[in-house]
Design brief:
361 residues, 11 helices, 11 strands, 5-stranded antiparallel sheet, 21% strand, alpha/beta, 6-stranded mixed sheet, globular
Amino acid sequence: MVVANENVEEEPTKKRKEFVVMIDPGHGGRDTGTPGTKRYKTTEKDIALDVSLALGKKLAKIPNVKVIYTRTKDTYPTLSQRAVLTNRKKADLFISIHCNAQPGKKGTAYGSETFVLGLSKNKANLEVAKRENSVIFLEDNYEEVYEGFNPNSPESLISLIILQEEYLDQSIEIASYIQKEFKVTAKRKDRGVKQAGFWVLSKTYMPSVLVELGFLTHKKEEDFLNSKKGKKIMTQSLYNAVKKYIELHSKTSFTDDPVVIDDEPIVVEEDAPSRVIKGVTFKVQLSASSKKIATKSYNFKGLDDISREKSGGIYRYFYGKTSDYEAIKRMKAFAKKKGYKDCYVVAFKKGKKVPLRDVLN
């Protein structure tokens, strides 16, 4: 992580822009969401609202951060209304909060997971997306409002993906922070960052994630999510993750500590065979930020060969440049040892970013 220090060269700004977080408590009103095991009167819509309001209250205390909600009471904003409001308020981050379910089973599935928009052949992921998208059927004119979108149609899901592609990197980034906090802070089972076709994520034009706090169809997890302690822990986990993301993607900083460069030599294995892929350039993405930072080693924990790319108002910072996939993996390992725990390999063809899996296959 790059933190502010006196050596960082930033472009001058007239006024610090507020970082706007849109929190979307899933479901609401006549749409109760997941009912759980029915041992409680509490439903998904209530837990989602409790955690959302608690999260927003904590985030609102951060200087220069503005929090908006799609609902603050037991009301039912449609998926379309949620997306329209989020875009109109020009939010910098969209977080939709839900609880999961395992239909037709005895409630063996448990744990927390965070979704970003994407295609998935995984049946479980598809079922989650279908369930969350199916609320459009509660609306009388859904065919007109959603332009023929059908939650059960694979073709409809494919049409959603292109719209959010620009923000996918940052969506994955915040999702990874959330999952790490769920695992470390909340001690929940980490079900990982996943991709699926959620309509509301496709229509919000900023980094967007949908969080499944846990399974209400699992008795112990239902107990946890219904408890004050459980809600408090999940709220704190989300807060830690969002705070970290805001720190990296806004002018707001939570520490004045300078970057410490460790001069201790780091040994990286060099004996792996080469795997050169012609026409492809690999780089290690270290971070993304609204700040324009000088690509000097002292700003990147001593790493050299740093490059910067601007896309949609966001600067992405890369380490290394090679056509050898094995070499870039070694560079990734080196960057992780330097402190960039969430860095990852990206691929470019003719100067344009392409899916890594495509070039490797």
